[in-house]
Backbone:
């Protein structure tokens, strides 16, 4: 028998022993869910081996509890943690990273359920082991000052209980649109949710820009993500979309609504957070991209299937037309809502962050998809978190064509559960890639029609073959107010930049 086979055999034996031990714990303590500690021996081989046998493991450093079962639990967590650290996953193993996150989740849940059965020393040891494991999987959790090791526990403790807020990542390139968005939120919609402007260092958003945007409304602050996470494996200053996931994770808001700088809302964000039943059910709300290019990205689909080959599809994935019918892009990540108080959602977000680290995004994430788009649903899916997608794929908000049988524009529209306009991407400008001064108040929209995609990004797209709906007076009022505020902000930006 090879050394590796012996290692796998020992780990399988230990895992089976732990199942028996946890069964005894459940019977003795009447903790119905005590067996939730998920130490798997899946067919993907993610954790079928261990680097050391019991005599060589680091469990000798663990305090010995009088309850032999808990001592064995601590030993097994210690051994598995050591294996995860000694055998890091390559950047290509999205599925196996999801399995490791499921193990981490079950450890945390088990430690919470068994906390009253452990001494304080044992509880501290287990928590430290969990934090060490998380840090080995996600080194960006380390404190960038190097004065201490920021732990997963510390990240969770920073979330303000029951808090809700908006996070807008931006730099100088998208600064103007972020200022327009704040006007849309504060002046047109009257939202009072606190706002964090996330950036990656002074070169990304210099101090004078931060001062300007902070003064556009009440309760707006700026957060340098490089001061929250260790940038060694991230390179967020050159990461583009990658900052979004880390801005979401590093935010102090327990419930976080992440917005692209060029997003525009037609309903107050409080409405989405408080009333969307799908979000309230799962704690994660995502929005679909357009149904385009069916069958054109077979390598992408084959790669998705490989990562999901040892995974039971969620309800959301089972309903996916992109995954099941071969369309190109699933997610429009211009608006993402996450309830980080839910452990599964938080750990799913860790997977999303991992996908947006430099090595992983350069080798896989941004090659197998367009930017960060697919990392959101894939991270939640593979880590076992529930999530909700909007009911429809991306619609069209714009103006009628000459024949009045199509709706055309340069944006993608999204809808709430009652099929009312919720938000769209692309900014308040009619076509931001061709004319940076022409604003637009769209007059019509369409849901579930057929897309006629423009030949290039600056070219107009249309939707046809579905019901055309005129925007309401209230929707046009919100957009007119947003445009009015945007023009006012532009004048201030022009004055501000001329003095800089």
Residues:
């Amino acid at each position: 028998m090879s050394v590796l086979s012996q290692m796998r055999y020992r780990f399988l034996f230990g895992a089976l022993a732990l199942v028996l031990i946890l069964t005894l714990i459940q019977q003795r303590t009447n903790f119905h869910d005590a067996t939730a500690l998920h130490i798997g021996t899946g067919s993907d081989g993610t954790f079928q081996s261990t680097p050391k046998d019991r005599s060589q493991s680091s469990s000798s450093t663990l305090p010995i509890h009088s309850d032999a079962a808990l001592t064995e639990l601590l030993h097994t967590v210690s051994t598995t943690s050591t294996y995860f650290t000694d055998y890091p996953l390559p950047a290509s193993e999205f599925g196996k990273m999801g399995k490791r996150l499921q193990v981490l989740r079950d450890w945390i849940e088990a430690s919470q359920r068994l906390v009253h059965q452990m001494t304080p020393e044992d509880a501290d040891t287990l928590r430290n082991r969990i934090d060490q494991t998380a840090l080995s999987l996600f080194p960006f959790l380390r404190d960038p000052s190097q004065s201490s090791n920021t732990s997963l526990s510390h990240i969770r403790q920073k979330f303000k209980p029951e808090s809700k807020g908006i996070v807008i990542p931006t730099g100088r390139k998208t600064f103007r649109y972020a200022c327009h968005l704040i006007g849309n939120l504060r002046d047109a919609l009257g939202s009072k949710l606190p706002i964090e402007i996330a950036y990656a260092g002074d070169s990304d958003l210099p101090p004078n820009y931060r001062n300007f945007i902070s003064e556009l409304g009440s309760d707006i602050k700026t957060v340098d993500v490089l001061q929250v996470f260790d940038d060694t494996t991230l390179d967020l200053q050159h990461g583009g979309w990658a900052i979004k996931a880390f801005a979401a994770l590093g935010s102090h808001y327990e419930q976080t609504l992440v917005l692209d700088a060029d997003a525009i809302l037609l309903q107050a964000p409080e409405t989405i957070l408080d009333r969307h039943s799908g979000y309230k059910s799962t704690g994660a709300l995502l929005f679909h991209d357009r149904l385009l290019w069916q069958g054109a990205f077979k390598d992408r689909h084959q790669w998705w299937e490989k990562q999901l080959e040892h995974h039971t599809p969620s309800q959301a994935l089972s309903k996916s037309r992109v995954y099941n019918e071969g369309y190109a892009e699933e997610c429009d990540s211009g608006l993402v809502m996450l309830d980080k108080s839910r452990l599964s959602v938080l750990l799913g977000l860790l997977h999303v962050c991992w996908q947006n680290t430099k090595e992983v995004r350069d080798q896989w994430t941004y090659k197998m998809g367009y930017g960060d788009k697919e990392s959101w649903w894939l991270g939640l899916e593979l880590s076992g978190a529930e999530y909700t997608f909007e009911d429809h794929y991306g619609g069209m908000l714009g103006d009628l064509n000459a024949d009045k049988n199509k709706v055309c524009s340069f944006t993608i529209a999204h809808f709430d559960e009652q099929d009312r306009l919720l938000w769209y991407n692309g900014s308040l400008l009619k076509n931001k890639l061709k004319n940076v001064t022409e604003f637009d108040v769209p007059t019509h929209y369409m849901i579930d029609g057929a897309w006629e995609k423009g030949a290039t990004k600056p070219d107009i797209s249309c939707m046809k073959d579905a019901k055309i709906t005129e925007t309401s007076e209230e929707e046009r009022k919100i957009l007119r107010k947003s445009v009015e505020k945007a023009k006012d902000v532009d004048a201030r930006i022009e004055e501000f930049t001329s003095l800089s």
Observations:
- The radius of gyration is 25 Å.
